[in-house]
Amino acid sequence: MRFRDQWKFVQKNAAKNRSRLFMTVLATAIGCAFLIVLASVGYGIQETIISDITEGRVLNEIAVRGKRGNGRFQSISKADLEFMASLPNVRAVTREQMLAQQPAFRMEGIEGSWSTLVAVDFPSEERGGLALAVGRLPERSDEVLVGFHFVQHLRSVARDTMPEELPLESLIDATLEIQIRQSFAGEWDERWFPVKIVGVVEPPPQEWLRDPRIWISETLLEEIEAFTQTPRAQIIPPEASANDDERGVAELRDALQDLVSSDERAYENVIVHARNIEDVKGIVEALDEAGYASFSIAQQLERINTIFVVIRAVLVFVGMIAVIIASIGIYNTMTMAVTERAQDIGIMKAIGAHPAVIKRIYLIESAYIGLLGAIIGVLLSFGVSYLLNTFMPAILESVFEVPAAELEGMRFSSIPGTLVLFSVTIAVVVAVVSGLRPAVRATRVDVLQALRRDL
Amino acid sequence: MPKTMIQTVDLSHHFTIGKKGRERIVPVLNRINMQVYEREIVTLVGRSGSGKSTLLNLISGYIHPTGGEIYVDGHRVTHFNEGQWADFRLRYFGFIFQSFQLISSMTAYANVELPLVLRGVREKERKQRTEAMIERMGLTAYQDHYPGELSGGQQQRVSIARALIGNPPIILADEPTGSLDSETEAEILELIQYLNREDGITFLIITHDESVAAIGDRTLVLDDGRLREEAVS
């Protein structure tokens, strides 16, 4: 018997008791929708959390906080940077050294009381993918970059003299003078370091972060340190410098000597840039093995995803209960159908219908109910999901007094294609399994009994 | 020598009745040896309870014998499983029942077409053959009617059309006129004789009606589970 004819049989049979079919399909649809909506909440919350974590961040970055050794936590040295750069699949290792004083500056008649300077290695930054809003990367030690919000900082110190709208391009090629101070023998001394702004860095990915910093080269930092005679231009109070024998001053001077002689600098914000996101795991393992404390969004996401897989599995399990309840309806409907059509089945068997064909017809009918229910259930779940995402924030705000700002961008329900596919498959499989016993029963209909022992 | 279409060899059957542990064996057929030849009309007569229906059920494969063998067109069918029987029935047998056994939710056309559907015949060919058969049986005007909307004679014609549509070599009929008035009965018997004569179909007919038995080339008599007499008409 051809599949097309079996399908016609199924349609004819289904049409015999429309109300019963409708109720069974409805139960399946509700069960399927319940399963999808429940799991979609897991997906929605996961999406919200992950989007919060990854907002603008690059997933192939690994932050290295320090190194474990000799029973204490050590900062990252140049040798460490070289080790990290030598690891396979590392594209670049970027690092920062923050100046220990916030110097005053002046730029084209504007004078600022303080600024934040950070020394970076521009070639590494370039390999790491540092993006500029305007301009280019510095090529000389007297060239610098400024953070995206430097212009706001300027405006805050020179409100009256600066135009309201100052384009970023106007900063390019501007000369900036940075005042570095230090006390020597109890007296303040200062030096102005003239630099040229050649580029403006893209804003930080997180909206709430501000970057008004001046990005200088490590060479310039060394020049500054040569003047201050302290690491990172740390200031020695005049009262301390008045007496060179004081312990703190001596330590600082020694530290600088160490820096110069052994190159033992301590780096901050060390980021290892992997070539691909797939390489992150291997690099993290290598760093861990070498005793480095590292953190990567990709690894964190992996852990979060694992947690959400468990949460979703629990939600799907709960949702499955509804589908299983619906399957009882399908079983009941199919059993009734077989009982009602026992004579027809008997006649078909009497004239030569193969038991496998009869079984298949009833299994197709079960699958048809499951599929129809699943399709309606999917549509229903998309509707419920839309309502959840649309009205839930308002409900939470008015009933539970959750601040609207906290709910902004939050997803309460998300239905990925895989969930739809999974639910439809589950609904159809459960329907077929429910119809299996009635279908087998149909093949066992006694011909003579069905024909009322006519022959 | 005509070809043997149906042959039974020492065919016996008994039913087991009663509760487990207190079963009782009721013998129904005792060592039946019979042949039905090609293009023959054989009628099987006997009193009620003589075992004639059981014999037909065994030949149809609806029940399995407790002893002996059955051959149909040279095939030993006694040990067929249900699936094999289904395929065999579809190919070799047409069935005519006393109470027609039409599927009530199907039109006359769909009932006639059913064996071709079960055989997997393409729709175009099915349509041609079904329309031709319906026309031959004089049912064109009623092809869209449901069995409940047809007279007994018309229903039996539909039943015969369904039995013939697959061109089976053998038709097994149980009291084919049992539910019909005498006028329709004569009409149906005439049709059976015509089909035997023109299409060469072999008929095995169960009846207790003398006028039906009279159309047989041979009449077999079953008495108390034994084939006692074979009369040639």
Explain how this protein is built:
The complex is a heterodimer of chains A (455) and B (233). Chain A is built from 15 helices and 13 strands. With 455 residues, chain A is of the alpha+beta class. Chain A folds into 2 domains: 3-55 and 303-450, no CATH class; 61-275, no CATH class. In chain A, strands 1, 2, 3, 4, 5, 6, 7, 8, 9, 10, 11, 12 and 13 form a 13-stranded mixed β-sheet that branches. Chain A starts with a helix and ends in a 5-residue tail after the last helix. Chain B is α/β, with parallel strands linked by helices and 233 residues long. Helices cover 35% and strands 30% of the residues of chain B. In chain B, α3 crosses α4 and α3 packs parallel to α5 (152-164). In chain B, 45% of the residues are buried. The interface between A and B is medium-sized, with 26 and 34 residues.
The chain-level structural class of chain B is alpha/beta
Q: Please, what is the oligomeric state?
A: heterodimer
CATH class annotation of chain B: Alpha Beta
Q: How many β strands of chain A by DSSP?
A: 13
* Biggest sheet features of chain A: 13 strands, mixed
Here the CATH topology of chain B equals: Rossmann fold
Helix content of chain A: 40-55%
* Overall pLDDT score of chain A: 86
- Number of H/I helices of chain A: 15
Order of helices and strands of chain B: EEEHEEHEHHHEHEHEE
Secondary structure: helix percent of chain B: 25-40%
Number of domains of chain B: 1
Shape of chain A from CA axes?
elongated
Distance from first to last alpha carbon of chain B? 19 Å
Uncertain runs of chain A: none
What is the N-to-C order of secondary-structure elements of chain A (H for helix, E for strand)? HHEEHEEEEHEEHEEEHHHEHEHHHHHH
